[in-house]
Design goal:
Length: 387
């Protein structure tokens, strides 16, 4: 009992120390080192002014920023679909930090609060926003999506109502991972995953793995996940996948669908494609039982060839997923309650000064990289316990 009380007292003292130091952090800051993408294969670390906040915004001392596949894609290609890099852009959007300054109208957080940052801020006024589908807002301002800056920087401003206070026992790294987890939660909601669902997930990369975790938490009874790399499937199995299936590049979607049915206890009624490749979308349709749902999460080529008549004749619904909406609070609740453990996904840690090495590790999958985390402040500086 004494040990438990002492542990809790220690945690409170650490967090109190963090909060007291935050009020002085802006004055003490000597730099606002920022990772800026200037063009294809042209990432630079440079100084930028500390931003001035509006009445409804907070200034955040950034702590942890995860590298997303989209960040790597912008570095390698300078564009994703119609989002084209035309001017220097601050990279990064999977993030957490500590509030250092409040706008006059902010009431939901206070200085010293550790927060996860939902990176997409809608207009709040259009029909999509009013109907609760703000991810479809045409006026969306999304971190590190041209022309808007991201938050791999020491200080970043953000609307307070899109900041989520982290409970004391949730780490900054877990806070940053709420962003990809929200994608998984949204994908499962779009697929209507519920108690007893049989789910196939195409792709065991970071998004496939968080979708696996979300599907488990939402009651799926059987989950099969596919990939071309056995190493990724091993991680999926470790995280609780019922079945894994190593794909072969020369195997047709129809042949693979047959293997899926033989591996699972019947046909899956939900398919979630986290790859974006034409072959995975085709497999999702062929493998899904009649009357089921196929959800496309991964973004691939602008146009692909799909077996639409097959889906039509069997009433297989095909649904898209674009980011997330109203999912951050749910993702936080899953992590906070312990129902979802995302810690296993973080495989590498880098200081912001080593951003180039971090991106090299992420894009090449060095050392079995799943999620590479960049630390803007010293690692564990804002965690009550070591991550």
């Amino acid at each position: 009992m004494l040990k438990l009380v002492s542990s809790r007292l220690f945690d409170r003292l650490v967090l109190q120390s963090v909060r007291c130091s935050c009020e002085k952090s802006i004055d003490m800051a000597k730099d606002n080192l920022t990772a800026v993408l200037h063009g294809i294969e042209d990432m630079r670390l440079e100084q930028r002014p500390i931003p001035q906040i509006a009445d409804d915004e907070v200034l955040i001392a950034m702590d942890s920023v995860g590298i997303c596949g989209s960040d790597v894609h912008y570095l390698a290609h300078g564009r994703i679909g119609d989002f084209i890099l035309t001017k220097p852009m601050v990279i990064g959007h999977e993030s957490s930090g500590v509030v250092t300054k409040l706008g006059k109208k902010v009431t939901n957080v206070k200085v010293g609060d550790r927060v996860a940052i939902e990176p997409g801020v809608p207009c709040r006024y259009c029909d999509h926003c009013k109907q609760g589908k703000y991810n479809l807002c045409p006026g969306m301002v999304f971190c590190a999506t041209p022309p808007y800056d991201g938050n791999l920087t020491r200080f970043y401003k953000h609307p307070a109502d899109f900041c989520f206070k982290l409970p004391d026992h949730v780490s900054m790294e877990e806070g940053a991972l709420l962003e990809p987890l929200s994608v998984g939660v949204h994908a499962c909601r779009r697929a209507e995953v519920t108690l007893g669902s049989k789910v196939i997930i195409l792709g065991a990369g970071p998004i496939g793995l968080v979708t696996l975790l979300a599907a488990q938490a939402m009651g799926a009874s059987e989950i099969l996940i596919t990939d071309l790399l056995q190493q990724r499937l091993d991680v999926a199995k470790e995280l609780g996948a019922t079945h894994t299936l190593l794909l072969k590049k020369d195997q047709s979607a129809e042949e693979t669908a047959k293997l899926v049915r033989e591996t699972m206890c019947g046909e899956p009624d939900k398919a979630i494609d986290c790859c974006g490749a034409e072959s995975s979308a085709r497999l999702a349709i062929f493998a899904t039982r009649s009357g089921g749902v196929v959800v496309i999460v991964g973004m691939g080529a602008p146009e692909v060839k799909l077996p639409i008549i097959n889906a039509l004749a069997r009433e297989v619904d095909i649904r898209g997923v674009f980011r997330y909406c109203n999912d951050y609070a749910s993702a936080l609740a899953l992590v906070s309650s312990g129902k979802v453990n995302v810690k296993r996904l973080v495989t590498h840690h880098f200081d912001i000064k080593d951003t180039d090495k971090a991106f090299e590790t992420a894009r090449k999958g060095l050392g079995g990289a799943i999620k590479v985390m960049i630390h803007v402040q010293p690692r564990d500086a804002n965690n009550p316990r070591k991550f």
